[in-house]
Amino acid sequence: MEAGLRVRSETPWPPGIPTPLTRLVGREREIAEIARLVADNRLVTLVGSGGVGKTRLAIEEAAAAAPRFADGVDLVDLSSIPDPALLWATVARAIGVEERADGDLAQRLTRVLQPQNRLLVLDNCEQLLAGTAVLALQLLSGCPGLWILATSREGLSVPGEIIWRVPSLTFPEPEHLPSPDEMKEFGAVALFADRARAARPGLVIGTADIAALCSICFRLDGIPLALELAAARVSALSIREIAGCLDDRFTLLSRTVGAPARHQTLRASVDWSHQLLSQVEQALFRRLAVFAGGWSLSAAEEVGIGSPVVPGQVARLLAALVDKSLVQAEDSATGTRYRLLEAVRAFAHEQLASSGELEETRARHGIYFADLGEQVASRLHGQDQHLCASCIDLDQANLRAARQWCAANPARAVHGLRMAAGLWEYWLIRGLIEEGAAWLEDALERAPGPPGTRAAALVGLALFTSLRGEFLRGGEFFAASIALYEQTDDLRGQARALAILGNWRANRGDREGSAEALYRAMLMAGLAQDQYCAAYAYLMAAMAASSMNDRALARAYAAQSVELFTEIADRRGAGYAQCVLADCMSGEGSPTEGLDILRTCLGVFEELQDRWGLLISTISAALAHAAHGDWRETAFALGVADGLSERIGGHPFPAVQAAIDAIAAKTAAELGPSAAPRREAGRAVARGDCIAAAIGLAPEPGPSCAQQQELPLTKREHQVTQLIAGGLTNKQIAERLFIAQRTVDTHVGHILAKLGCSNRSQAAVLAGNRRSPAVST
To answer: What is the pLDDT of residues 387-436, one digit of tens each?
Structure first.
């Protein structure tokens, strides 16, 4: 913007460019970027949705760049041309070339422009896209001194074209309200304030208006046209009243004079783009309105089909809607995500409702996300667990919308139950225990459901209820779940429910009942031949033994669980089992080794954003610090655990809570008055998810690239080799790495074969003289 203002003050406004009636606000970065592109490229197209400010940016850049073009700059508005045949004549008139009946206008225009140094702004190309592309290609090919700056809702697809998507103005998130000083940094806020004060001179925007103003900017997606229309209403409404009226945005946001018809209302701006779509593009466009927040390509392919949209077309049609600036495409950690701006979504929803397809499309949306939710449980076990959880993060709004659809009709309630039964472990990972419990309870109440689905939902509800402090009620849900599982052939479900029940009984002091449930869990896992279930049963057995202070048994079960989880690449499960091992070491007088293990656990849980795992590992860290006699660190870790527990809405099982209470009392006695502020400092850290570094247990960096060369060993084989060099026996290596001795025996055999050694001593010498890689195959 600064460059544009300098040109305006130092030189006359170029005659071929319309003079703006208002100043440009909040676009400094955009103007600088467009100027850079135009300086280096002869065809730049500003692409964006209606009302995002393409024309205004093009005008400002043309005015700023005018001194560079000796023969002038001209703007040609193509929006009012009814016939593509009139395109060349319109451009000719704009630059002063007369039409003649006896000649080829295209050739004559090219001859006139061929020696010139001129910038041509082609505004609103979308309705004459093909003709404009031909015109641009011919003129640029024959006129080396010609530059073209185009605006359109999609690119021209001409060789050499640079497409630059015009972003909305920046705006604050309503859930994180900025301070009055920070508000000035957002372009949307600055534009609204500027136009509002023009409509109502003397207007003061106070602290009490910040929430409403943020809501306006957020709900209007920072679109300049929408913000200007909203700001004009301050002559009759307060800012808070405007925010409250935005549900009927198409009625509120309109003006009657002083703008092209397509910019006189927000509806007209969107409708202008909609009319340019083909019938099949319109069909997919309106169906996309059922998505809440955003969607993936696979979701669109399931929800958007139906005459005239056939399977296999959706990817191409969706790309076309992105090109036409009606759909926004954004990169994410899980792949490309798509969304509609809220004004566009409101228009699309109106079109969907009037088409008679609303209920059918909602049904496809509801079924798709019910299926997605149901499938989550199995996808969270294994190497893709982080990707799966991240995908669900992005679809939270869609899942909640699907839940409402399921709950609205008793015939659909079973789909809501399927979804809730599959999602409960995701809710545990993300620390959404209260929401998960409410969702599960509601789904179970609404749908009797098939026994297996109902049993799975009851397991989740039993666990959440127990973690929320209603331990006995949780036991009732466990019993109901197992009774239903026994009516099915779901051995995996039975194994998991029995394993959790075994740990639950141990926390009740029922040693025999715990052993019986865990034995059955391991039996069912074996019958199912499911390694995850076996690993999980060993994990619950380790936790049960730890709660009953049987550290030797807990260590053995935990080591077996770590090994099984590692084999199936379930880092999260292995992390929980390693926490048990760390507790055992702390209890046996080796808290330093326990903290070393927890360093790994915390790194895993932070990476996976497993908040329940962070809570459990932080509690283990507090126990280790207490065993070490480091009471300041104990108090801090206890505070972090307090904060995480409050965020999550749940507490550990009674045996663990009793241990926490014991070391909390000891910490208070040791530190005296300084214990409370130290614990409060830890509580503040728990508001975020970066816990490991705060409690001094950040994962250590891996080996450098130079260290990852020479010996052809896998990472595990390298670890075993180093321990051999340290003089450890196979049994001691197994204990150190928490794996079975037979596994160590196998690794040693592979190491000797790969290194060409006949015994362990030779391997030890070789390992001492050479380096081995972190990863090899």
So the answer is: 899 999 999 999 999 999 999 999 999 999 999 999 999 999 999 999 99
Angle in degrees, 0-180, between the axes of helices 591-608 and 611-628, rounded to the nearest 10: 160
Which tokens sit at 508?
Answer: 């009740």
Q: How many CB atoms lie within 10 A of CB 311?
A: 10
List, in order, residues 6 or more apart from 109 with CB less than 8 Å away. 88, 91, 92, 95, 97, 139
Q: Rounded distance, CA 34 to CA 56, Å?
A: 12
Residue 148 has pLDDT above 90, yes or no: yes
For residue 347 the two structure tokens come to 């228009």
Task: Tell the burial category of 390 from Cβ atoms under 10 Å away from its Cβ (0-12, 13-18, 19+).
Answer: middle
Say which DSSP state 45 is in: E
Residue 715: pLDDT above 50? yes
Q: State the DSSP string of 625-641.
A: HHHHT-HHHHHHHHHHH
Short-list 644, 641, 613, 656, CA closest to 425: 613
Looking at residue 295, its pLDDT comes to 95
Residue 776 has pLDDT above 50, yes or no: no
Q: State the virtual CA torsion across 584, 587, 593, 597 in degrees, nearest 10.
A: 40
Sign of the C-alpha dihedral, residues 236, 239, 244, 246? positive
The closest alpha carbon to 721, from 748, 741, 696, belongs to 748
Q: Identity (one letter) of the amino acid at 677?
A: P
Give the DSSP letter of residue 311.
T
Give the separation between CA 112 and CA 207, rounded to whole angstroms.
59
What pLDDT score does 702 carry?
45
Taking the alpha carbons of 562, 565, 567, 572 in that order, is the dihedral positive or negative?
negative
Instruction: Give me the pLDDT at residue 10, please.
Output: 56
DSSP assignment string, 573-606: HHHHHHHHHHHHHHHTT-HHHHHHHHHHHHHHHH
Half-sphere exposure of 591 (CA within 13 A, CB side): 14
The pLDDT of residue 767 is above 80: no
Bridge partners (DSSP) of residue 146 are: 118
- Determine the residue type at 9: S
Count other C-beta atoms under 10 Å from residue 247's C-beta. 9
Q: Which amino acid is at 124?
A: N
Distance CA(91)–CA(74), nearest Å, equals: 9
Lowest mean pLDDT among 166-180, 668-682, 730-744: 730-744
Which spans in 395-487 are helix H?
396-407, 413-429, 433-446, 451-467, 471-485
Helix, strand, coil share of the chain (percent; to 5): 65, 5, 30
**What's residue 762's pLDDT?**
62
734: region left, alpha or beta (phi > 0 left; psi from -120 to 50 alpha): alpha
If 0-12 CB within 10 Å is exposed, 13-18 middle and 19+ buried, where does residue 196 land? buried
